[in-house]
Amino acid sequence: MKPARFFFSEKLLEYDMGPGHPLKPIRLEMTYALLESYGLFQEALEKVEPELANDEEVCLSHSAEYLDVLRRLERGESVSDVYRYGLNTPDNPLFPRIYTASMRYTGASIGAAQAVIDAKLHEDQPVAFNLSGGLHHAHYSRASGFCVLNDCAVGIRRLLRGFSRVAYVDIDVHHGDGVQESFYRDPNVLTISIHESGKTLFPGTGFPEEIGEGAGLGTSVNIPLAPNTPDEVWLWAWREVAIPILEAYHPEAIFLQMGTDAHAYDPLAHVCLSAQGWLEAVKDVKAFGKPIVAVGGGGYNLTTVPRMWTLAVATLVGKEIADATPQSYAYHKSIPQLTDPIAPAVSDAERQAAWAFAKRTVQQVKNLLFPYYGLGKSSVN
């Protein structure tokens, strides 16, 4: 099997919102170094320099006006009412090369999608990676939640050039609102998002009743969960809803958003997963045997993001790697192993509340969506 294409360049680190911002570009560098220390670029991965996205393709998912605003801001021009575009806010501050940096990570997702299309004729399950991508909150004419351009939406539209039906699977702790919005009326794209409830976390959306509209009715799947949800509850909800709908939809390819911020140690959310619990969902996606474009996403604890992405990449390329990180890894002392040696602490009361919330969510999703797929609405006990 040919090495999987892994889109990376130090220029991707230019997507930098400043030293006080939670989104740290160094997480990409730390992950690349960890993958390299395991020797994965010697046989399993091929590093590819991403190209900039072009305006024509990006404008299938964003307005030309919005792109022009980004270009003008990069040139240092004044833009009146810039807040209307979600910019110059604490979440989405202005920064040097805002247009170029955004077009580069978006171009990397386009490249990964095209790599999978090109490989489908001679590989059973091609996979390609862009860990700088997964910026799922950006809207048609507005930045949001650290995301300037929605590379997921752009990448999915490139995938649709080679595949007739695509599933977008989002395991980030935040609802993939921008992607859902982009394909809400499209029957050729199934969007699945499992996340902390919008009642307690940004962006305040992603409820079970958001099931699509028009021709896309039934193709938007949301699995909101409670704060303090542990592995077993999260995985139960995921497997009760996401897996059967994915099977019934029969996608030809999967676009996997691998945000790591559902981990218990992430500072911006309240779900309590372990690295290995989260990884089970990645394994489930791989088990479908479909071509996969795998992108990054949220993740704000620098001791969890590199190891979780490394686990995911190794899993998706079918490589067994040691749990102990190599001594040669520059961050070995702060990240001595990939998995969590101790399960994150969740009290009995928190666990019971998480189960009750998950059961309500799962029953609601089954009632709303299973009829579209000929699936039985079994009651949840």
UniProtKB/TrEMBL annotation:
Key word Hydrolase present: yes
Give every Histone deacetylase domain span: 21-315
Q: InterPro entries per the record? A: AcuC (IPR003085), HDAC_I/II (IPR003084), HDACs (IPR000286), His_deacetylse_dom (IPR023801), His_deacetylse_dom_sf (IPR037138), Ureohydrolase_dom_sf (IPR023696)
Give yes or no: UniProt keyword Hydrolase.
Answer: yes
Its GO biological process annotations read: acetoin catabolic process; epigenetic regulation of gene expression
Superkingdom, according to UniProt?
Answer: Bacteria
Q: In which pathway does it act?
A: Ketone degradation; acetoin degradation
Key words of the record:
Acetoin catabolism, Hydrolase
> Which GO terms fall under molecular function for this chain's record?
histone deacetylase activity; hydrolase activity
- Family from the record: Belongs to the histone deacetylase family.
User: Could you identify this protein by its name?
Assistant: Acetoin utilization protein AcuC
Q: State the organism named in the record.
A: Chthonomonas calidirosea (strain DSM 23976 / ICMP 18418 / T49)
